[in-house]
Amino acid sequence: MEISGSRRIAAPREQVWGALTSAEVLKSCVSGCEEMTGGPEKGFEAVVKQKIGPVSARFRGSIRLTNVVPGESYTITGRGKSRAAGIARGVADIRLSDVEGGTQLDYAVKADVGRKLAKLGRRLIDGLVVRMADSFFDGLQLAVEGPIEPAAPADVTEESDKKPGWFGRLMGKQKA
User: Fold this and answer.
1) Which of 29, 88, 83 is nearest to 62 (CA)?
2) What's the CA gap between 56 and 82, in Å, rounded?
3) pTM, entire model
4) CA–CA separation, 137 vs 33, rounded Å?
5) Residues near 28 by Cβ (< 8 Å), separated by ≥ 6?
6) Radius of gyration (Cα) for the chain, nearest Å?
7) Each residue's pLDDT tens digit in the chain (176 positions)?
8) Distance between CA atoms of 11 and 71, rounded to whole angstroms?
9) How far apart (Å, rounded) are the C-alpha atoms in residues 20 and 11?
10) Are 48 and 4 in contact, with CB atoms under 8 Å apart?
Protein backbone atom coordinates (compact mmCIF):
# COMPACT_ATOMS: atom_id res chain seq x y z
CA MET A 1 0.00 0.00 0.00
CA GLU A 2 1.30 3.45 -0.86
CA ILE A 3 -0.14 6.82 0.14
CA SER A 4 1.18 10.35 0.05
CA GLY A 5 0.05 13.75 1.16
CA SER A 6 1.05 17.00 2.78
CA ARG A 7 0.20 19.14 5.76
CA ARG A 8 0.66 22.80 6.51
CA ILE A 9 1.71 23.25 10.10
CA ALA A 10 1.55 26.70 11.68
CA ALA A 11 5.00 26.53 13.29
CA PRO A 12 8.61 27.13 12.25
CA ARG A 13 10.41 24.27 10.54
CA GLU A 14 12.84 23.82 13.46
CA GLN A 15 9.91 23.22 15.82
CA VAL A 16 8.31 20.68 13.47
CA TRP A 17 11.68 18.93 13.06
CA GLY A 18 12.09 18.75 16.83
CA ALA A 19 8.69 17.08 17.14
CA LEU A 20 9.50 14.59 14.38
CA THR A 21 12.63 13.47 16.23
CA SER A 22 11.23 13.34 19.78
CA ALA A 23 10.31 9.93 21.26
CA GLU A 24 7.71 11.61 23.49
CA VAL A 25 5.98 13.39 20.61
CA LEU A 26 6.16 10.37 18.31
CA LYS A 27 4.62 8.20 21.03
CA SER A 28 1.72 10.63 21.40
CA CYS A 29 1.15 10.62 17.62
CA VAL A 30 1.11 6.86 17.04
CA SER A 31 -2.35 5.50 17.73
CA GLY A 32 -2.20 2.73 20.33
CA CYS A 33 1.45 3.37 21.24
CA GLU A 34 2.04 2.17 24.79
CA GLU A 35 5.78 2.68 24.95
CA MET A 36 8.49 4.41 22.91
CA THR A 37 12.12 4.70 23.91
CA GLY A 38 15.33 5.70 22.19
CA GLY A 39 16.27 8.59 19.99
CA PRO A 40 16.91 9.62 16.41
CA GLU A 41 20.60 8.63 16.37
CA LYS A 42 20.27 4.97 17.39
CA GLY A 43 16.57 4.51 16.62
CA PHE A 44 13.48 3.92 18.69
CA GLU A 45 11.88 0.83 20.20
CA ALA A 46 8.12 0.78 20.49
CA VAL A 47 5.16 -1.25 21.73
CA VAL A 48 1.91 -0.57 19.90
CA LYS A 49 -1.48 -2.17 20.52
CA GLN A 50 -3.86 -2.26 17.56
CA LYS A 51 -7.19 -3.82 16.70
CA ILE A 52 -7.24 -4.77 13.04
CA GLY A 53 -10.60 -6.14 12.05
CA PRO A 54 -11.18 -9.18 14.27
CA VAL A 55 -7.53 -9.32 15.39
CA SER A 56 -6.28 -7.47 18.46
CA ALA A 57 -2.50 -7.52 18.75
CA ARG A 58 0.42 -5.98 20.58
CA PHE A 59 3.33 -5.24 18.26
CA ARG A 60 6.91 -4.87 19.46
CA GLY A 61 9.17 -3.22 16.99
CA SER A 62 11.90 -0.87 15.98
CA ILE A 63 11.92 2.45 14.19
CA ARG A 64 14.98 3.80 12.38
CA LEU A 65 15.71 7.15 10.79
CA THR A 66 17.88 7.13 7.66
CA ASN A 67 18.76 9.60 4.91
CA VAL A 68 18.64 12.31 7.57
CA VAL A 69 19.12 15.90 6.41
CA PRO A 70 18.66 17.81 9.71
CA GLY A 71 15.76 20.24 9.64
CA GLU A 72 14.77 19.16 6.14
CA SER A 73 14.04 15.45 5.57
CA TYR A 74 14.41 11.84 6.61
CA THR A 75 13.21 8.35 5.90
CA ILE A 76 11.55 6.61 8.83
CA THR A 77 11.36 2.82 8.73
CA GLY A 78 9.35 0.77 11.19
CA ARG A 79 8.95 -2.96 11.65
CA GLY A 80 6.81 -4.68 14.25
CA LYS A 81 6.03 -8.28 15.17
CA SER A 82 3.10 -9.78 17.01
CA ARG A 83 2.51 -13.43 17.91
CA ALA A 84 -1.21 -12.99 17.37
CA ALA A 85 -1.09 -11.08 14.09
CA GLY A 86 2.21 -11.47 12.29
CA ILE A 87 4.38 -8.66 11.00
CA ALA A 88 3.85 -5.09 9.87
CA ARG A 89 6.37 -2.92 8.04
CA GLY A 90 6.28 0.68 6.97
CA VAL A 91 8.55 3.26 5.38
CA ALA A 92 7.80 6.98 5.14
CA ASP A 93 9.77 9.70 3.41
CA ILE A 94 9.25 13.01 5.22
CA ARG A 95 10.25 16.38 3.76
CA LEU A 96 9.86 19.82 5.36
CA SER A 97 9.89 23.18 3.62
CA ASP A 98 9.16 26.74 4.65
CA VAL A 99 5.84 28.26 3.58
CA GLU A 100 4.12 31.46 4.54
CA GLY A 101 2.82 31.08 8.07
CA GLY A 102 4.71 27.89 8.92
CA THR A 103 5.99 24.64 7.50
CA GLN A 104 4.91 22.37 4.68
CA LEU A 105 5.29 18.67 5.58
CA ASP A 106 5.19 16.32 2.58
CA TYR A 107 5.09 12.56 3.10
CA ALA A 108 5.05 9.34 1.09
CA VAL A 109 4.23 6.14 2.99
CA LYS A 110 4.63 2.50 1.96
CA ALA A 111 3.22 -0.20 4.23
CA ASP A 112 3.12 -3.97 4.09
CA VAL A 113 1.92 -6.79 6.33
CA GLY A 114 2.62 -10.50 6.52
CA ARG A 115 1.34 -13.76 7.97
CA LYS A 116 -2.08 -13.55 9.65
CA LEU A 117 -2.56 -9.86 8.84
CA ALA A 118 -2.13 -10.55 5.13
CA LYS A 119 -5.08 -12.95 5.31
CA LEU A 120 -7.45 -10.23 6.54
CA GLY A 121 -7.79 -8.68 3.13
CA ARG A 122 -6.21 -5.80 1.29
CA ARG A 123 -9.18 -3.41 1.72
CA LEU A 124 -9.15 -3.77 5.50
CA ILE A 125 -5.39 -3.28 5.72
CA ASP A 126 -5.39 -0.36 3.25
CA GLY A 127 -8.10 1.40 5.25
CA LEU A 128 -6.14 0.89 8.46
CA VAL A 129 -2.96 2.34 6.90
CA VAL A 130 -4.80 5.45 5.73
CA ARG A 131 -6.45 5.94 9.14
CA MET A 132 -3.16 5.46 10.99
CA ALA A 133 -1.32 7.92 8.71
CA ASP A 134 -4.09 10.51 9.12
CA SER A 135 -4.13 9.96 12.87
CA PHE A 136 -0.34 10.30 13.09
CA PHE A 137 -0.20 13.57 11.15
CA ASP A 138 -3.26 14.96 12.98
CA GLY A 139 -1.49 14.17 16.26
CA LEU A 140 1.75 15.75 15.08
CA GLN A 141 -0.06 18.89 13.99
CA LEU A 142 -1.84 19.09 17.36
CA ALA A 143 1.41 18.48 19.26
CA VAL A 144 3.18 21.30 17.41
CA GLU A 145 0.38 23.84 17.01
CA GLY A 146 -1.50 23.12 20.23
CA PRO A 147 -5.27 22.79 20.53
CA ILE A 148 -7.48 25.07 18.47
CA GLU A 149 -8.93 27.86 20.57
CA PRO A 150 -12.73 27.95 20.42
CA ALA A 151 -14.16 31.05 18.80
CA ALA A 152 -15.27 33.75 21.19
CA PRO A 153 -19.06 33.82 21.49
CA ALA A 154 -20.78 36.62 19.62
CA ASP A 155 -22.30 39.38 21.70
CA VAL A 156 -25.57 38.17 23.13
CA THR A 157 -28.40 40.54 22.37
CA GLU A 158 -31.20 41.31 24.75
CA GLU A 159 -34.10 38.85 24.59
CA SER A 160 -36.38 41.63 23.36
CA ASP A 161 -34.04 42.33 20.42
CA LYS A 162 -34.26 38.76 19.14
CA LYS A 163 -36.61 37.89 16.34
CA PRO A 164 -38.51 34.66 16.85
CA GLY A 165 -37.20 31.74 14.82
CA TRP A 166 -39.30 29.73 12.44
CA PHE A 167 -40.71 27.63 15.29
CA GLY A 168 -41.66 30.75 17.27
CA ARG A 169 -43.36 32.29 14.25
CA LEU A 170 -45.23 29.03 13.67
CA MET A 171 -46.46 29.11 17.27
CA GLY A 172 -47.60 32.74 16.86
CA LYS A 173 -44.96 34.38 19.04
CA GLN A 174 -44.30 37.98 18.17
CA LYS A 175 -41.34 40.23 18.87
CA ALA A 176 -41.85 41.83 22.27
Assistant:
1) 88
2) 10
3) 0.73
4) 14
5) 139, 143
6) 23
7) 788 999 999 999 999 999 999 999 999 988 889 999 999 999 999 999 887 777 788 889 999 999 999 999 999 998 988 887 778 888 999 999 999 999 999 999 888 766 665 555 666 667 777 888 888 889 899 999 887 665 555 555 555 555 555 445 555 655 55
8) 13
9) 13
10) no
Q: 11 to each of 72, 101, 104, how far by Cα in Å? A: 14, 7, 10
3-state secondary structure the chain: CEEEEEEEECCCHHHHHHHHCCHHHHHHHCCCEEEEEEECCCEEEEEEEEEECCEEEEEEEEEEEEEEECCCEEEEEEEEEECCCEEEEEEEEEEEEEECCEEEEEEEEEEEEEHHHHHHCHHHHHHHHHHHHHHHHHHHHHHHHCCCCCCCCCCCCCHHHCCCCHHHHHCCCCCC
Amino acid code (one letter) for 19: A
